[in-house]
Design goal:
The longest helix has 31 residues. A seven-stranded mixed beta sheet has the order 4-12-11-10-7-5-6. A four-stranded mixed beta sheet has the order 1-2-3-15. It has a four-stranded antiparallel beta sheet with strand order 13-14-17-16, covered by helices on one side. It has two domains: 176 residues, Aspartate Aminotransferase, domain 1, CATH 3.90.1150; 257 residues, Type I PLP-dependent aspartate aminotransferase-like (Major domain) (Aspartate Aminotransferase, domain 2, 3-Layer(aba) Sandwich). Strand 5, helix 8 and strand 6 form a beta-alpha-beta unit. Helix 4 packs antiparallel against helix 11. By secondary structure, it is of the alpha/beta class. It has 14 helices and 17 strands. This is Diaminobutyrate--2-oxoglutarate transaminase family protein.
């Protein structure tokens, strides 16, 4: 099948497109506000805008594009389905494409889970899979409460928002997520993580804690939107121990961390734990919408039709997803992400020694965060400086001016996030870091200039 490239947009046509977007689309749009570009072509790490500019994309569809834009194996898988005459919409019926996807997915799962697992195809987004996971454990246990963590992000639907960091739902008990840099206990490291684990045990075992035995615990092995906070491996093992000892299903949200992103195929593999439920989306669809939960068969207490959805059978996404999973597995891209990610972290940590505004550099694999702070505003007794969201926003804009797309996250949107594709080359990685370093220096100059101007008044 021949691919017809879109015709170049007339000069300044992108400005009209952006103007119409601002007039027609809802106020809830997000990425379009900080990234006012109009992509027309893309391949690998690179996006070309309608204005002819090229960008290095370290957003990757919020972590969706494990192989980058329009990878040949993904395009070939999609073309194969289109050329075959296979149905594109099949609800939850069985098809060869679906069977191949499921087989490939199960081949990548932790063995203990794969040997006794069930899969539920959900709606097209990760938040739909989170909703399914919450409903599943509530049905299986007969309980309604949930344990979740501060700083979490699990999606935008009602139940997913309940277990995300900004919710106030009384059915959800919130536990402190371990942070080495901004430890809620002020100690950091393994000690801080252990104190958090003890607090969880205390809530569950104290009959007067006000926290009834929950239907499940949901966590991210690395908090993404929460600021790229990797959960310590020992803490993950403690959460698995605490939940297993009390027959509480453990749900691992691997929507953003899965498919090699953190340096193992699934992020739970760093700690060696096996959750009861895994929530999977983003990269498993090979750039197309696909979301599933995989769970222990003993939890499969649903009645037929208990959780359904029209768009559960996206054949193109399953084909693209199977091709992506196989390519990552066969080419050991998780190992590659671990090696290259460590190298990038090292260089960023070196950059931090020359820039006091970098409070922390953290991450796992090719899921990297740089927290920006304001050391001049730190109180004398502060353990760490306050976050600097204004500087982070300036860095994001300076990056865009230099042809680099990055995302912001964290509690105060002060963490610059890098999510490049797993196909990133050494040369591309260095180009990304060079542009980031240059953007950081420029943003520092601009924000310091504004601060000096204010002080002069």
């Amino acid at each position: 099948m021949a691919v017809t490239e879109p015709a170049p947009a007339p000069p300044a046509a992108h400005e009209g497109i952006l103007r119409r977007q601002s007039l027609r689309e809802s106020a809830a749009r997000t990425y379009a506000r900080s990234l006012p570009i109009v992509p027309v072509r893309a391949r690998g790490l690179t996006i070309e805008g309608a204005d002819g500019r090229r960008y290095l994309d370290c957003l990757s569809g919020a972590g969706t594009l494990a192989l980058g834009h329009n990878h040949p194996v993904v395009l070939e898988a999609i073309k194969k389905v289109l050329d075959s005459g296979a149905p594109l919409h099949i609800l939850d019926l069985a098809t060869p494409v679906k069977d191949a996807f499921t087989t490939e997915l199960f081949a990548t799962l932790p063995r203990e889970l794969a040997e006794d697992a069930r899969i539920q195809f959900c709606g097209p987004a990760g938040t739909d899979a989170v909703e399914a996971a919450l409903k599943l454990v509530r049905t299986a246990t007969g309980r309604s409460g949930l344990l979740a963590f501060t700083g979490a992000y699990h999606g935008m639907t009602s139940g997913a928002l309940d277990v995300s960091g900004g919710a106030t739902d009384v059915r959800v008990s919130r536990l402190p997520f371990p942070q080495n840099y901004r430890c809620p206990y002020g100690v950091g490291g393994e000690r801080g993580a252990e104190l958090g684990a003890r607090w969880a045990e205390s809530l569950l075992d104290d009959p007067k804690s006000g926290v009834p035995m929950p239907a499940g615990m949901i966590l991210e092995p690395v908090q993404g939107e929460g600021g790229v906070n990797p959960a310590p491996d020992n803490w993950m093992r403690r959460m698995r121990e605490i939940t297993a000892d009390r027959a509480i299903p453990l749900i691992a949200d691997e929507v953003q961390t899965g498919v090699g992103r953190t340096g193992t195929f699934w992020a739970v593999e760093h700690s060696g734990i096996v959750p009861d439920v895994m929530v999977l989306s983003k990269a498993i669809g090979g750039s197309l919408p696909l979301a599933v939960i995989v769970y222990r068969s003993e939890l499969d207490a649903w009645q037929p039709g208990a959780h359904a959805g029209t768009f559960r059978g996206n054949q193109l996404a399953m084909a693209a997803g199977a091709a992506t999973l196989a390519f990552v597995r066969e080419n050991r891209l998780a190992d590659r992400a671990a090696t290259l990610g460590a190298r990038m972290l090292g260089r960023l940590q070196g950059l931090a020694t020359a820039h006091p505004c970098i409070g922390d550099v953290r991450g796992r694999g090719l899921m990297i965060g740089v927290e920006l702070v304001d050391p001049d505003s730190a109180a004398p007794d502060a353990l760490v400086p306050p976050p600097a969201p204004e500087l982070a926003s300036a860095v994001q804009q300076q990056c865009l001016d230099r042809g680099l797309i990055v995302e912001l996250g964290g509690r105060h949107s002060a963490v610059v996030r890098l999510l490049p594709p797993l196909t990133l080359t050494d040369e591309q990685a260095m180009a990304v870091l060079d542009r980031f370093a240059d953007a950081l220096a420029a943003a520092e100059r601009s924000t310091h200039g504004r601060n000096d101007s204010r002080q002069s008044y």
